[in-house]
Structures are given as C-alpha cells and as structure tokens.
Amino acid sequence: MAKVKAPVVMDFFAGCGGLSLGLELAGFKPVFVNELNADAMKTYLRNRREHPALESKFNASDIKSLVAKKGALLADLLDGIRQEYGIDARKKEVDLVVGGPPCQGFSGIGHRRSYSVDKEQLPSNLLYQDYAYVISRIRPRIFLFENVRGLLSARWTPSGEKGEIWSDVRETLRGIKGYYTDWAEVRAKDYGVPQNRPRVLFVGIRDDIGWSPVRDAMKEGEAIVRGFLPSPHGNPPDLIDLLGDLIDPKYKNGGVTEKYPKEANGDIQERLRTSKYDKRIFAKGDPLTEQEYSMHAERVIAKFDYMREHGHIPPYFATKKFAQRVLPPRWTIGEGPTITATSLPDDYVHWGQSRTLTVREWARLQCFPDWYEFSGKRTTGGIRRAGNPREGIHEREVPKYTQIGNAVPVYMAEAVGKHFKKILGR
Fold this sequence. Notes:
alpha/beta
C-alpha cells in the first residue's frame, strides 16, 4: 500500500475520541487507538467507519498487553502499520503519539472516591510509565501527554510531598532521550471552548526534525511561550449561542426531542450541525440524537424553578454532595466560561428550562459535532461509576455523560493539532 500522505497519529487512552477528533479536524489520520473501556472504544470506532483498519486490527484495549514480554506485541503492531500504511516506526516515521493516562486519583472527584487507598495502589495511576515506554519504542516526531490540573499538586500518600506525583511523571517523560520537552497548564476557553477546563499538556518534540524551542533558557512550564503549544486565541461562544437551537418549546420532563426544533442560528450552531460527509447543515425537522431528558421528581423541578428565579439552591435543598448551579445564557463580560463539564450531568441546570442537560448538550460543551454518536448507557452512578479501590474494585462503568466529561475538548485538540502540523512542516 502507498504511504499515507497525511501526518499520522497513534492515540493511547483515547476515551470516546475527543482528542483524536480535534487532531483529525487539523489534518491528522489515526492509525491506531488504545482504550480500555469497551463502550468508549465503541464510541471511538463507530465515528470512524471510514477507517476500517482501526476496527479490524489496529486497536488495543490494554496498553499493558503491548509492553508485556519486552514489547513483543508492540513490535507486531508496528510491523502491521508499516504494511498497511507505509509508515515505518522503526525508521521513526510516526508523526504523533498522544495520550492521557486515566486520572482517577489525580482529579478532585477521583481523590474523594479513592477512599483510604494511597494513589500508588491505584493501577491507573502508574500507566504513565507504560506510555513513556511506548513512546521510547515508537520514537514519534512529536508526543503529547494530557491530564487534569490536579496532577500538579497530587501526592502519592497523605503524608507525601505536594506535587510529588507530577515530579515523577515529568521526570519519566523528560527521561525519553532525543526530545525537546516542556509543559504548560492551559485552559480550554483560551482555544474557543465554552468551558474554563484547566488541563496539563506535556509536549516532546524530537530534536532531529529541524525545530528548536524559542528562548530555550526560560524556566520549565512555559511551553506556549517557547513554541511547543499554540498561543491562546479565545472567543468561546456564549451558551445561548451554543445550545439555543436545541431548546424545544414542547419539552416534556422525561421525554425526548427527536428532531431539530429550530434552524441553526450563528456560526457555532452551523458548524456543529454540519453533516460529516455531505457537509449539509442539519435543518429544522431533521433527526436529532441524544436529546433525551431526565425524569425529574416534582420536588426536584421545584428546586430548579427556585434556582432559575433566585440564582442559588434554596436552603432546604442544600447538600454537601455538590454545588449545583444554573448555567448562564451568557458569560460575564471579561471573564468568559467558568464551568467544567464533568462526569456528573446533575452539576448544572439549564437556564431556560427546569432540567439538567441532555447528552447532546453535554457533548456540545466539549465541541463534539451533532453527527458524533455515543455508545453505552446514558448514565449510571454509585460504585458502578466510581469503583471502590479499597476493596480492589478498580473497573468502572463509563456511560455517555462520563465519556464526554472525560474527553479532551475537540476545539482545543484541533488548535494543538494545527500547531503541531506547522512544526512538522506538513
């Protein structure tokens, strides 16, 4: 087979595919995907039917299977990619490797749900070592590590030193020889995403591709200034401009809207409603997916009514579990988005209707287009979602809301991908 002309990417810990989709919009072609959760993998693959080789042979559920036995399966995988795509990893021809090892024990929610277990005992918190090994074997031109901001201050044990986990992760990635490296804490809203969503991005660029950092003498953590990552360009949409076309005046509690109730209005709605293949903008009356509403009890609807009118939870409804709030139709001028989509759909209440957001609205917060389909349960809760590491229960269900909440925002990934393409000169 002729060599692929587009730059190629191998995506590890891909989740439902937000990072990959952004990179694809920037011009990259995925040639391998790794994702442990079956539903998230189904989501990833069903939205990439134009790449049948991904589903048939170039995917893996567990990165540990690739690194076992001195990387024997990884070597077989790279041989297969060379035969299928004409990309020879043994000659360092892979353009990009990306990955965000699971962050169960690094995020605030993950920390609260890890019970009394030290983070060293959570298997998911050591996967960065496997990821570094894979990078050292593939030797891509660029690699990207992505994770939550909580990683920067996380401890292995309650008595440990603040930031010790990040120190270990950083030193492991910096130890991959032959790369310029740097990292930065970025915010999704700086790249046109309607969320604040701070993330940590660590970038490695191979030192033989004709690129070098800007102002190399600067301190570590300045990846944007030094040219590893794109400069912010801002301009995130207001929520009414993002979601206003999905508001159904005939909405019913616990019901579903199966067709677009309105025409697209504005650039962001038109972009999200553009068909993947024929580039047609979905019109009023066209089929709409994932616009199913939660069935709220009467007392919950009364709470939402109060919140929408007064701007806060009534005292008799207040709990210590979470700080639920009403979404603003427009962001405060000069401040921009203040929210972060998580795995919990109950975190936010719609400003125009007394309900939580649908899966489709949740997906739009992450800039997934409306043609993107999701697999698995709509939502779940309790131990099925959180697991119980204290009792050795590490596996968790990953329903649609959680898949979306865990994803890298598509437009931020697209901005990073376009920047990497410039570095690659392609």
